[in-house]
Protein 1
Amino acid sequence: MTSKSDFFPNLDASAVCNLMEQYITAQKKLLLLCHVNPDGDTVGSAFAMQKLYTMLGGYARCTCTSDVPGYLHFLLHQQDSLLYTPNMENNFDVIWAIDVASPMQLGQLSFLANRVSLSIDHHENCTLFSPYYLNAKASATGELIFHIYNEWIRRKKITSDPSICRCIYAAISADTGSFQYSNTTPETFQIAASLLNTIQNDPNGEDTAAIAHRLHGCRTIKELQAQKLIIERLQLACNGKLAYTCVSASLPAEHDLSDFDFGGMVDIPRSVSGVLVGLAIKENKSNKGTFKISARSNCDIDVASILSAFGGGGHKRAAGATITAENCKEAAEKMIAVFMPAIESYQKEK
């Protein structure tokens, strides 16, 4: 974390609940910001918070500059879209950021960073820009939302709610790769067990198996077509220890595909046998020459530290950044240049 922690207070779940109570008593409307290219953790966590705030008698709405991908639509609550509409913040009294590691992750909403009064997040390498409730040891922001939800139950203000539990469970399942990633801890399983108990005892909604299928085991034909294109562009470097794939800005439209269809593309290079680091390099169609980098480590190589040189961040084994380059070839060369020393150093130590 940055030294800005000296300037911003770090809250806990109880303090967050106290804030919520003050807001609801004062009839304050709450706007919840998700990060660009929303994933299961930011969407699940934000909508769990929206449902909780509503259940307590308040009004809240979630928004983002990118709409929610189709496979996450089941998490939406009384909202047809996540998309931001111009000046909508003027209709709200309070703004919180959910699973947002830096103002840059707000995309075109970064201008609202100064109005954010609380960030709820779990990223170790982050840029603090408001008071925060942060736990870098948590597998997902969903874990922090669970503690807020559980505190309200402890205060006997609400009872167990399956719809909130599904959102939190989805958030955690998404960020742990269905509990496969190294960020999964004993506490993660304890929280999941508590959520599962509520979800499985509700006959009116999807069970945890159905949630896992939506998140990890269900792909549209277009998504499978995108995966084929990603695999065709798969390259190896650093003696097969670095795998990467690059998608140009024009490629999706050339094949009648959307950016959503290329979601999760980093999982393909990461899955190659023997690879230590997998990279997904994707050009921004609205800003050509700008490439989004997603990095995943299968070992102790700290990809967040490496990408911090480009203003990026995230976790030790999962991080992202944005770089500029003339084309995919140059973008890949830049990434190989910064990851090669770390890979070589890791191999020497082994």
Protein 2
Amino acid sequence: MTMLDQAAVESALRELPDPYLGQDLVTANAVKALTIEQGRISLAIELGYPAVGYVPRLRQTLEQRLTALPGVTQVTVTVRSKIVAHEVQKGLKPLKHVKNIIAVASGKGGVGKSTTAVNLALALAAEGASAGILDADIYGPSQPRMLGINQKPETKDGKSLEPLLNHGLQAMSMGFLIDEETPMIWRGPMVTQALEQLLHDTNWQHLDYLVIDLPPGTGDIQLTLAQKIPVSGAIIVTTPQDIALLDARKGLKMFEKVQVPVLGIVENMSTHICSQCGHEEPIFGTGGGQRMAEQYGIDLLGSLPLDIHIREQADGGMPTVVADPQGEVALRYRDIARHAAAKLALQAKSYSQLFPNIVIQNT
């Protein structure tokens, strides 16, 4: 084939923007191999985000578009994902065995942040990534109940804790270490120290993503996370009403000040779905998340309904993504996960782990 033919194939690919990357696969450097021989095209795509649920549709779209080119007799498309570590705050290095940390935050309580966080982590796992979740809400840990875990973590060396597993997710929470009804009557420094220990003293096993479920607000925990924990990106969870959006803006501004990229906004409880008739109504208002996203130039990653089944499934230790994996709400969570991971994939990569530590010793 001539260079003109190669250019024609690449031109056809440029006409197909990836809905998650927001750009075509050629521009995104996702085309890793392209061979053309006697009308047969072989194309290898490498995505920087997990996309098990999207790959069949992507492959079909590419095959249909390339088959329509003049002279093409056969098209073979392979798609795989490769998750790499991305840059974190200056002066910090990614954790060993954890490529990316994604913080899930909200400006106020009651917006469904923890439910969103656990379903997001499970959605990343369902899309093919190795994922874990750290419950950073020391005062009110909820992940043990949501994940259906009621055991204590083990230690093999007396120094570190083994993460607990359920639904294919690695997890750690203060709730694993204390009784569910025991209050944590601690001052700020004790809480921040506990968070650091839970993060650094857990023996995480080769995670592509570690989702941190933050407590609401912009206090000690959030400041510790910004200063001492290598975060690749943050997600803001809000509801459509004005008071929630006002607090969500504070959370967004906090991450901007500490130089943690905000991957986008998740609008929870966008509409209420009646359990009796299925009628859908925006009881908290409409368009709040979209307006906030446009105001600050960030992405609206997706919207989720106020559905009693989401609450029941999380309370029962089977979050929606695993309780009803092919249901509409679970598919929304997976779509949000792809959007967030793709947004992260466009950020600069971290090369810190490629360089050796330099130690100076007196001899």
